[in-house]
Amino acid sequence: xxxxxxxxxxxxxxxxxxxxxxxxxxxxxxxxxxxxxxxxxxxxxxxxxxxxxxxxxxxxxxxxxxxxxxxxxxxxxxxxxxxxxxxxxxxxxxxxxxxxxxxxxxxxxxxxxxxxxxxxxxxxxxxxxxxxxxxxxxxxxxxxxxxxxxxxxxxxxxxxxxxxxxxxxxxxxxxxxxxxxxxxxxxxxxxxxxxxxxxxxxxxxxxxxxxxxxxxxxxxxxxxx
Length: 225
Known about the structure:
alpha/beta, 2 domains, six-stranded parallel sheet, five-stranded parallel sheet, 5 helices
């Protein structure tokens, strides 16, 4: 009788529903201000990229608050920030009131650059005349799982930078201007959303996707492209 070599069993597959549920927890953590958009991007990348069931299960336990991290570095540190609880008697409520829309920021004959650690409400407003708007949201925290950025601009360009995994919806009306949107290939269902609205006359809109901590090259700093 012919003998066959034993066949290794197929590796255990991590169900997409588990990944999606864990990603939803991260989106909630963003909306409650526990992690910023850059930290969401790093954790979400791990949620959808890990293939080892044991490693995924450990991350799932940490983000769900059912176990404490073994060290304070890397993903363990971020998972601890995202968790609703890190142990008995140590609960992260993370409740941040969305409050009223932020006051509209107006600027004439000048550029407005915002980056670094900042908190965005559910609605941000900007009004510029003869000036550019540059928003780097990679370290921003939100008070809701999504935010609306309304820009009304005349003679000025608009540049918005987000980390991978964050969804961007363009609802702006541009008159005599171009739109350039980076293709964000790591968007997952339920990700935090930045919606851009408003009107621009004689100006371009650029949405750029960049990893947290990535710096523009010399040519980009020189030209702003």
